[in-house]
User: Fold these one by one.
Assistant:
Number 1:
Amino acid sequence: MRTPDLIRFARDAATGNPLRTFLLVLAMAIGVAAVVVLTALGDGARRYVLNEFSSIGSNLVIVLPGRSQTGGFSPGNAITSTPRDLTVDDAQALLRASAVHRVAPLAVGTSEISVGGKLREVMVAGTTAEFIDVRRLALAQGRFLPPGDWRRGASEAVIGAKIRDEMFGREPALGQLVRVGDRRFRIVGVLASTGQGLGMNTDELVIVPVALAQAMFNSNTLFRILVEASSREAIEPAKAQVTEIIRLRHEGELDVTIITQDAVLATFDRLLGTMTLAVAGIAAISLAVAGILVMNVMLVSVAQRTAEIGLLKALGATGATIRNAFLTEAAMLSIAGAVLGFALGHAGAAIIRQLYPAYPAFPPDWAVLAGLGTALLTGIVFGVLPARQAARLDPVQSLAKR
Amino acid sequence: MGAALIELSGIERVFQLGDSEVHALRRLDVSISAGEYVAVMGPSGSGKSTLLNLLGLLDRPNAGVYRLEGRDVTTLSAEEQARVRSERIGFVFQSFHLVPRLTAAENIALPMILAGIAPAQRSARVARALADYGLENRADHRPDQLSGGQRQRVAIARATIMQPALILADEPTGNLDRATGEEVMRLLEELNARGVTLIVVTHDGGLGARARRQLLMEDGALHHDHWRPADTTPDRCALPT
Ligand SMILES: Nc1ncnc2c1ncn2[C@@H]1O[C@H](COP(=O)(O)OP(=O)(O)OP(=O)(O)O)[C@@H](O)[C@H]1O
Ligand SMILES: [Mg+2]
């Protein structure tokens, strides 16, 4: 039997029983669509987190006060007790390290901002001129904090986009005087809006010189020291050098936690990649269920078409021809289901992206290929048994059946 | 005359039914020459259909040798037997056995599709067959849109489309009224007149009498092998017994 004839024959046999065909294709489609949508969700989560972390800056080494027990990164490390202050001097000392390109100290606290009778609670970040480059932030208006002595600082502030909108509305903000806590600052710059992120939301931030922030909060300690290594390769040397410098300055005790952005990224990447894989595995179970359905439906089909199979044998069909005809039919139904599921899955992912624009719900290529492949494979594997059963039917008894 | 088309010697067919054995065919020796017209008759259960299935290579005997065109076909593999069926044998059944989802033309083309014949050649042959059997206007009709007589004509067209040497018909008129049955028999006899060997199983003595040779079966054995004397009988010398 020629291949086009085989395909046409299988197609006619499939369309000859539309309900059966529809159910089969639907089962297969749901399986594939589940793989596509669930992996889109999983991989979307991974990409979302990676994006957010990458947007913090690049080649970052972050120094946190307090020793983490495990050495690895875990969210719990952020709230360890602080045995020894992490100071601006510590930060400045890090500039000596050869692998370090830039350093930005960061002191954080909450306070109130008021201007013209309007009052609002804000997050105040005390830092230096380097911060804008280390964090890869952009300005919408004005300029950032000027470079200069870290232990001093003019009473100038840079505000986030949302603060600007809320405090000034349509009025110009640059050059205005505001009160933060009990101090007065002149606004010299406005940050470009970045939207909601994983890290600190810079839209609702007021940035002032680190010395003034520490005075305002009456504290010597820093929240973080952000260190930018001079290159990607320099991240590990930078981490080693930073560790050494801090240890020396803290009398031989390493009472800080030093994490690299790469390590955090790798951990999240692994974690979320595994999650995506697990989710894909769960979705693949529905494909196996679809495969079993294919088998049952094809077995029923063989039983229903026994007389036809006997006839085909009488007309000169070999067992192989009949086996191929049934296998082709199973494969065609699987392919149709897989293609439909592929389309449905992508539509589903598109709807998710529409509903949550920040969430990059794109199914990864490997998952799509694996889904389609598994669908085809299950269809054919589970089609083998019915096809062989059809091929083995005794022609005389089959013909006698009505 | 040439060698016998069909030579059966010592054919036995035994069905196992639980503990008991049913001897559907016993020690059958028959020889049929090319171009003969044979009617197989006998009471129900006498083994007529079993014999026809054996001749059509749909079934294997438990003992004995079946030679088709001089070749022992009982020892062929299933694939080789399928090939012989495809090229040398055409079947016509009592219940037509058309594929319900295929049109008349597609049903007629089925043996050629299974044999892997190219589409161009197929459509030419199908068109000729449709014309030969007066089915031109029914080409695109499905079996359930055809009358019984038309269905059997489609079946005959299908049986002859591969130009077989042998046509096996098991009660081809059994589901048809007398007039339609007559017409179907006439078509089969025309094929025989053109040289195709025709073996018809029938209950109808009248129809059976039209064949030049009648095989009377009884309880799985050949009870009577009757030749109707006629000047057109081609090969009396090949008489088997
Ligand atoms: N598959 C089978 N299993 C068991 N016994 C069978 C089988 N096929 C046929 N037989 C038996 O073999 C004998 C011959 O059957 P066969 O069908 O050849 O009869 P027949 O002459 O064609 O009868 P009818 O005129 O009713 O069609 C019967 O006794 C039947 O019961
Ligand atoms: Mg019978």
Number 2:
Amino acid sequence: MTEPLLRVEELRTHFFTRAGVVKAVDGVSFALERGRILGLVGESGSGKSVTGFSILGLVDPPGRIAGGRILFKGRDLAALPEREMRKLRGAEIATIFQDPAMTLNPVLRIDTQMIEAVVAHAGAGEETARGRALAALRKVGIPAPEERLRAYPHQLSGGMRQRVAIAIALMNEPDLIVADEPTTALDVTIQGQILYEVQRLCRETGTALIWITHDLAVVAAIADEIAVMYAGRIVEYGAAAEVLDRPRHPYTAGLLASVPSRNRKGAPLAQIPGMTPSLLDPPPGCLFRTRCARASAACAADPPPAGGAHAFRCHHPLEAA
Amino acid sequence: MTVFVIRRLMQSILVLFAMSAIVFFGVYVVGDPVEILVSHEADEAERARVAAALGLDRPVWVQYFAFLENALGGDLGKSFVFGIPAIQLILQRMPATFELVIVSFVIAVGLGIPLGMYAGYRPNSAGAKTIMAGSILGFSLPTFWVGLMLIMIFAVEMQILPAGGRGPVGSFLGMQSSLFSWTGLGHLFLPALNLALFKLALVIRLARAGMRETLLLDYVKYARAKGLAMRRVVFVHVLKNIMIPIVTVLGLELGSQIAFSVVTETVFAWPGMGKLIIESIDKLDRPVIVAYLLVIVVIFVLINLVVDVLYSVLDPRVRLAAKA
Ligand SMILES: Nc1ncnc2c1ncn2[C@@H]1O[C@H](COP(=O)(O)OP(=O)(O)OP(=O)(O)O)[C@@H](O)[C@H]1O
Ligand SMILES: [Mg+2]
């Protein structure tokens, strides 16, 4: 077996706040091959973004990676000095953020923001970089790219801005893109188009993708593998079809039951009762037990990893159908 | 853009009218300049003669319309005290004040932005804490006291800089200014520093606050995610954004510094416009006061115009035409 492009092992990213330690990511492991798409799903606050930022080396203080390894092409990013990390960011690991209205600098023109991303890495001249920017804009289906280059972000629509962000991510032909809810701020049709484009581009270029979202429908549409996060941990992990069709963890099952679907039309939507637990100095054991119908006394102890290729962490998993 | 500028100028003409009326009648209410101009022993006939010579024997509204008529022809009247055109008096003093204000702005911006940005970038460092403590002093120490201290230290004790007065002027491209002579610059330094301190403190605070706020924004994180060096993130992405509030505040400050840097000019015996207005108010020299304030209105209008244009350069979302 060859080494995958990215292997995250027991990643722990904690925020050392005055009130205590917030264990935003607490023992997360997964692997990603070239050209594959991993969907990272979970409720708000489950640590998805922090996982993404850990990979990019962009965790803000007081947070830091407190343990584990992030092996990217054989190098451990968790131990990489900032100088080296900067060279990787945007070049080998690109990112797309949630709200393109917030991520493009409002006072700089699109061309400035695209060209600098190339110049920072390739050592390319301004003109070469402009050519690459144009090509990237064409690739993501932006009409009249020359004009768009001269525009400021506020002169573009939300969908157009997100295409620009995708173009920026693709410009340096990265091996991995971390996309943090990139379609959440867009309406459904645009979301569909963008999903389709990104999937196509990743297949074409062999870029691996981590797609962070709380929307299971989106993940179902594009992911090869799915990792379900709950309270800083991955509670279920496996091939997308497996996880979606035969969930083993009660939390995944709950998430799936709360997605509106055509075949269950008319039936009331199930909701997971209770609230996301605080990650501030969390107790040991399964953190979902307070909201779980299947919980028992055993759940006060950490559930061991189980299941092999379709992995889950639960003392009382649902039956494999 | 052109429409915007024209509309602005029209508005300012209205302001000029209003200003001239308010000041004219205001000074009339305050007191009778004849009382100040003639000596105590002067008899009634002497007083009447002076009043008639200055045109002060007529009803005030007649005086005002006479003034307006002349003003439209470009004549703002003669100083009661000096007997020369008020505008000439003001223009004579203007270069001294301008050079003082310009140098003080260069000091405030040139030191304030880097210091403030540093303090915002490394808020917990000893350097940042020293800078912020210094800026509190800059805010709270009274200008006249700091001026006196500067004179004490640099002129009296160390004797490396002159205590006051404007030095010799040099000339460059036909302009006469102490900026173009070394001794002149020496005379300029202490008063300019004195005048700069408050603004310096202000710019430091604004730059620091802007830096801290902006560093937390998504687009800064995104810029870093693109792999940009921190240098570029700070000096391109952050700097351009924090310049917007700084330009606003400095624009406001610039006008009032030109018009009313009275304290500094007095402490350093600087022959600028601030001293002129104080002396004129003292003597109820109405033509000078009115002309002075009209000139100031024009300066404010011009500064605001420049600030608005700068805005649209700094922030592409600002559209000039959209604003009244
Ligand atoms: N700067 C910080 N200081 C303290 N805690 C933080 C900080 N940033 C994130 N956290 C904590 O980390 C946890 C995970 O946050 P994260 O942003 O990864 O959630 P998420 O899964 O991306 O949620 P969402 O769907 O809302 O984006 C949250 O509980 C949050 O309180
Ligand atoms: Mg998030």
